[in-house]
Amino acid sequence: MSRYKAMEIMARLKNLQAGQRVTYKVTTKRKHSDAVAANLLNQNFNPMEQDQIWVGDATYLKTAEG
Questions:
Q1: Angle, CA of 50, 55 and 61, to the nearest 5°
Q2: Do residues 17 and 10 lie in contact, with contact meaning Cβ atoms separated by under 8 Å?
Q3: Global pTM value
Q4: Average confidence score pLDDT of the chain
Q5: Which of 8, 28, 30, 52 could form a cystine bridge with 47, CB 3.0-4.6 A?
Q6: Residue 10, Cβ neighbours under 10 Å: how many?
């Protein structure tokens, strides 16, 4: 039995829906020659005043390249 036939039977008899995993896609293409940013915090995560340390996360940004 093919997986498509199995999915059809599951959907019809038990109202179940199987899904396939999305293939892994590389989102970062790092060049080892690129410069690395300096570690300005040096693991000091306890600022003395407000607005001394700001952080952000740009893990995934959609671009024209995908």
A1: 150
A2: yes
A3: 0.31
A4: 81
A5: 52
A6: 13
